[in-house]
Amino acid sequence: MFASHLDKKAQTATPDLIPSRNGYGEGLLEAGKRDKRVVALSADLTESTRTLPFAEAFPERFVQVGIAEQNMAGVASGMAAMGKIPFMASYAMFSPGRNWEQIRTTIAYNNSNVKIIGAHAGISVGPDGATHQAIEDLAIMRVIPNMVVIAPCDVHEARKAELLATKYDGPVYIRVGRSETPVVSTPESPFAIGQAEIFYTKNPDLPQSVGIISTGVLAYNALMAAVELEKNNIGAGVLHIATIKPLDGEALGVFASAHDVLVTVEEHQITGGLGGAVAEYLSEHQPKRIIRLGIKDMFGQSGEPNELLAHYGLDVASIVDAAKQAVSAHSD
Amino acid sequence: MHYITSADVTRLELKANEIRQSIIEMLYEAKSGHTAGPLDMADIFTLLYFEVLRHDATNPNWEDRDRVILSNGHICPVLYATLAYAGYFPVEELMTLRKFGSRLQGHPHRESLPGLETTSGPLGSGLSQAVGMALAERIDNPYSTKYFYCLTGDGELNEGQIWEALMLAGKEKLNNLIMIVDRNGIQIDGDTQDVMPLEPLAEKFESFNFDVQEVDGHNIRAMNDAIGKAQAVYSQPSVIIAHTIASKGVDVFERDFRWHGNPPGKGPEDRVPRSEQEKIALQKLRTLAGTISTDDL
Fold first, then answer.
1. pLDDT tens, A187-217?
2. Residue B237 contacts A where some CB pair is shorter than 8 Å
3. Is B87 exposed, middle or buried (0-12, 13-18, 19+ CB in 10 A)?
4. Is B174 an interface residue toward A (CB < 8 Å)?
5. Among A214, A230, A278, B63, which is disulfide-ready with A222 (CB 3.0 to 4.6 Å)?
6. Is there a domain that residue B1 lies in?
7. Nearest CA of chain B to the CA of A246: how many Å?
8. Measured distance CA(B162)–CA(B237) in Å, rounded
9. Chain A interface test: which of B105, B111, B158, B168 (most A C-beta within 10 Å)
10. What's B194's domain CATH number?
11. What is the pTM of this model?
């Protein structure tokens, strides 16, 4: 059963399609209007990261650093030291990809109030190919102390994440995507940093069950897979974990207890990201069989987003197959 | 320009040597750390904290203070010693440098110690932060007379991030930014001209739209005048290339790149028994007041 707060069209085969990065742009502009301490930095990707509306509305609070992500991290830290709330946006492959050490030392160890937006994350970047497909960013950000890591499911969550990050005192990483992806939530859906949300509750009458855990823009595929599994008489639930760090262990524990097996779904390497975080937590607190879906220790390639998601086993059919196999193995 | 008298110069020179003395003692006690940079920057740090800066040791977070951003964090013994003598924390605490539980971390950690403006160590990051601070100040107060002093090494200029930051500072015409380069001519692996030649350095900075001055980094009056001129530059960021003698103050260490990253007692004097090395280092410290005796420790 779909959570009542979700978008009604997300419960059909024809959801609205909007890039999650648009939510960053909307949230940034809104935050800028509410709080004049908000400043934005861009490394020559102002339009595509959706920083442009802010830059046009508040040119005096916008810094164009040129193609220089390492400098951008330092400049943002310096601005935070003077009381600003800097948002620095680039493609995730370059920030935090290229400037990881600057983020680690100058922002995180320095406990600097900087918000880092990694746009064009995941393989759904598509035709640009593997050089531009950040599928390691959650891992490299999750291991840094002081850093909050969020992968919103859609445009609405991205906007909320931006606004909440403004109020949160400390470094935050927010991952958004390039492609048009399904709108799953609504402006009214609950969202808080560090809080996982049940998006789909399993039919308790079915004898076997699988718990699907998603992060980022694959939440819709997880939901459609749950619907399909229940048609096949397998109970399925969906837990959406937008905040990978700090992980909502309590919600994860309850969800894990309620299902026979778990499947994690992410547009990221299966090590170090959502699958890694879930496996680490559960192996310590309540060991459970977990099938991790994601990129399996390889690089991406050019292609349309949907072709790539199917190829790397992240489309609805692949999630359903993996879940069926997991349930079947569990009952053997 | 801030005028200083001959008496001021003498006072500052004596203070700088007091700080050098502490640096040697700190490193001797820590048994690790960098020697050359801290010793050769002692005059400049003294001039800044005891003459130039608008700051208040009893209120380290005073909003209107000038900012000193140490980019080459490894020379922190000179920053720590200067801050202690300026009243930010007890001088006795200097001897905890690099020890477990100390506020004086091997490289500066902003949240550990009052008076630190940033966390640094990995080279090339401080100038970006100084640029960010200077930009933020200009947003809030375009007519501010608050200055942002960024101190870098010369070997550090090998880092690409420095040149990214220089480009942005030039583009933004940050006249409140004053960069001071410790041009001591050495880095860990050797002389800078061998490891990675920097010259013509002044021309490089000029081409990035900086106002450039080259000064004797041990001449207190010349440095004071250069800082005064840098403050007066209207529409450009400034850089002062401070020519210094690596390890200034200790005859046997001076100009030798092998003292960049070694503490007294662990340097290149391998023909001398180790037990004697520590004594040598201390006995050879040259100060205006005379040579320090190991008996004083």
1. 999 999 999 999 999 999 999 999 999 999 9
2. no
3. middle
4. no
5. A214
6. no
7. 22
8. 14
9. B168
10. 3.40.50.970
11. 0.94
Q: Which of residues 145-164 of B touch A (CB under 8 A)?
A: 160-161, 164
Buried b (16+ CB within 10 A) or exposed e, A263-274: bbbbbbbbebbb
Residue B234 domain flag: yes
Residues of A with CB under 8 A from a CB of B: 39, 60-61, 63, 65-66, 68, 70-84, 86, 101-102, 105-106, 109-111
Domain enclosing residue B107, as ranges: 6-296
What residues of chain A lie within 8 A of the CB of B110, using their CB?
Answer: 110-111
Condensed to tens digits (0 to 9), the pLDDT of residues A36-72 reads 999 999 999 999 999 999 999 999 999 999 999 999 9
**CATH class given for the domain over A17-182:** alpha beta
Number of structural domains (chain B) is 1
Distance from C-alpha of A87 to C-alpha of A84, rounded to nearest angstrom: 10
Q: DSSP code of A83?
A: T
CATH architecture of A8-14+192-331: 3-Layer(aba) Sandwich (3.40)
Q: Which of A65, A83, A102 sits opposite B168 (nearest CB)?
A: A65
> In angstroms, rounded to a whole number, what is the distance separating the alpha carbons of residues B197 and B203?
13
Q: Break chain A into its structural domains and give their ranges.
A: 8-14+192-331, 17-182
Instruction: Quote ipTM for the complex.
Output: 0.93
